[in-house]
Predict the 3D structure of the following.
Amino acid sequence: QLMRYDAAHESELLPTLEAFMRSRYNATLAAKELFVARSTLINRLERIVELTGIDLEDFDERVYLAITLLLV
């Protein structure tokens, strides 16, 4: 879903989510990795939640996301 959205809107939601997960869900570190402002990263994460309905605070959903991203 995020891949299609990124392609259609020339956005970077999937790379944002991947960076956020690599940084152990630390928005400040993920923003530094992506060379964007922390507020930009937070806005992207909010858009990801809107599009997917995923709760990034839920451990089980984080595990699901990690497995899904490994398979993609």
In short: The chain has a mean pLDDT of 94.
